[in-house]
Structures are given as structure tokens and as C-alpha cells.
Amino acid sequence: MRVRTLIATSDTAYTEHVSQHISEYHSDTIEISVCNTLEHLQKSLSARRYDVALMDAALIKGADLDAVTLPMLLWSEQEPCDISIVPGRTIKHQRISKTVSDVLEKYATVTGKINIAGDKKGKITAVWSPAGGVGKTTLALALAAAAAINEKEAFYLNLEAFSSTPAYFIEQSRSISAVFEMLEAGDGNAKMLIQGICGSESGIKYLCSPDNFDDMCILSPDNIHELVTNCADITEELIVDLSSICDKCTRQVFELADRVLIVTDNTDTAHHKIMQFVAQSNVYESIKDKIILALNKGALPSMEISQKKVSLPQINSTDTKYIYKVLAQQMVLERL
């Protein structure tokens, strides 16, 4: 299902530009129609229902709002009007991608858990380590960047207790907490909300860090299941960057993942923590066929926890963005 969206304004240049852009770049989620006169608007609303209608103040007063699930005011700050006419609004002269985000975000709150366009069932890669500082996030970002280089849709999902996402992406998306709130409430369409608020940089989609620490801590395994599957439905490659803990939520991601990359480096601490995970956790037995051991910083392939191993190249730089981008190029060559 695509969101049936009507744009009604007498500004023909605007409707032509917006409809062309949406048809070219957002046709997978938005079905766009336009009206430029009140007569045309009235005929359109009498002929079919629309999920969302963006209407300027001059036309909205003559519209049959009962024919629209979510009527929104197409608001121009240069044209003062009563912005309380309808419950939603979007600014007319802004980036079209932002308008699309407004539509999806607001419509997600009024629609049920219906299936929307997507259902790509992207490949899920979980990146994890019981030890901190071994290069887990760098590898996760490199995997996402490598997918983008290979012209695949990539989604980087950071589920660390303390997210490092803002350190890697310049343009900040809406906080992932908005999705958490919808999952906790159990209503609305989380998949559509994710599509509406995720950012995109260098071909990688992402959600920004939580508003506060507790937002991540209160998630249940069921919440995690819905979050991860919804993200996978709208991309080709989903990379999940996990915290170093191995709680029920982490195990839920392991269960959903097509592969689990466990990262280690050359320190005794990392070695002993991984061996403890293997020896003392029944989780290992359930995922061992999915595991790829990623050897970083000169780590030796001495741990027989997986038949699949990859040695990451050593890159002499303290710039983490530079490191993951160089590493991504290497992965493109090796097809990790």
C-alpha cells in the first residue's frame, strides 16, 4: 500500500515541481495527485477517499474533510492564516523530502498496523562483541557503507545503550525515541513512522540517538522484534549495531539475524570475554552457524568459535569516519 496523497493549491508551479519529485524519488511510499482549483478539489474528494490531503488556506475551507483521513494545512509563513483549521500542517516552501517525512510521520499516528510499501525483507546483519573498544561500530558502519557503494539500500540501526550515531552523521534525523513511544503504546504504524523520520547520509538510512538513556533500557524483546523487522522491511541491507551486553533484547536480534559478526581485537580482555561467552552462554550454540569472527587490530585467528573468519585491514588513522569509509571500500573488494 502507498499513501494516497492529494496536494491542493492554486500554485501550479509548486504542484508540478512537487508531484514530479515525489513521483521520481518517493513513488514506493506516496501515490500523488494534485488539484489547482476549488472545483477540481471538490470533484476529486467526491470521487475517492485520500489518506492525506495537503491543502492551502484558500482551498481548504471549501473541501469535504470527511473524504480525507488526515487533512493537513499546506502552510506558507508569508500567508498568515488560522493554523488550527486542521490537526496537521506542513510548511510549503521546504525540502520536498521533509514534506514527505511530515506526511508519513503524521499519517503513521492515525493509521493502524496495516502493511505499507516495503516488504523487502532485507538481509539482517548483527554486529556484536562482549568487549568494548574493539571496533564494533566502525565495522557496522563500514558494512552499511559497503552496501551503499554496491548500490544497495542500506539501513544502520544503532541499539547501543549510549548511541554514537551523532558522531558519524552530520544531518540529524528525528530521535529513535519517537519509534519507541509508538511501539510501547502499541498503536499507529511504526514502519511508516520509521520511513518518515529516518535520515539519510551517503546512501545510508539511520535513526538518531534516543532522547534519554531510559528509552533504550525499557524496550522489551517484542519491541525489538517489531523494530528490527520493520526496518528490514524497508531496506535491502540492515546492519544492527549492538551493545556489548547479551540480554534478552540482544538475543532477539541474534535470532532475527541472517549473520552475526562478532568482533575482537588483539587484547587479552577481548579474547577472554569471547571465550567466556562461548563457554558459559547457551546463546552461542543457537547462533554458531551464523557467526563470522571479525579479527581487528592484528588479532590472530586462534579462537575456534566459527569456521568463518575475516581479518580486517589495519588503517593508520584516528579519524573514525575515515577508517570506516576506507574499510567499506576494502569490503567491497572482498565481498564480506
Task: Outline the fold blueprint.
Elements: E1 3-8, H1 12-25, E2 30-35, H2 38-47, E3 50-55, H3 57-60, E4 68-75, E5 88-91, H4 96-108, E6 123-128, H5 136-149, E7 154-159, H6 177-185, H7 190-197, E8 199-201, E9 204-206, H8 213-217, H9 221-233, E10 237-242, H10 248-256, E11 259-264, H11 268-280, H12 283-287, E12 291-295, E13 309-311, H13 320-334
Parallel strand pairs: 1-2, 1-3, 3-4, 4-5, 6-10, 6-11, 7-9, 7-10, 11-12, 12-13
Antiparallel strand pairs: 8-9
Helix pairs in contact: 4-7, 5-13, 7-9, 9-10
User: What is the succession of H and E elements?
Assistant: EHEHEHEEHEHEHHEEHHEHEHHEEH
N/C terminus separation: 34 Å
Helicity level: 25-40%
Assembly context of the chains: single chain
Number of strands: 13
Secondary-structure content class: alpha/beta
Q: What are the low-pLDDT stretches, counting only 5+ consecutive residues below 50?
A: 113-118
Q: Provide mean pLDDT, rounded.
A: 87
How can the largest sheet be summarized?
Answer: 8 strands, mixed
Strand composition percent: 15-25%
The shape, in one word, is elongated
Radius of gyration: 23 Å
With strands numbered from the N-terminus, the spatial order across the biggest sheet is 8-9-7-10-6-11-12-13
Helical stretch count?
13
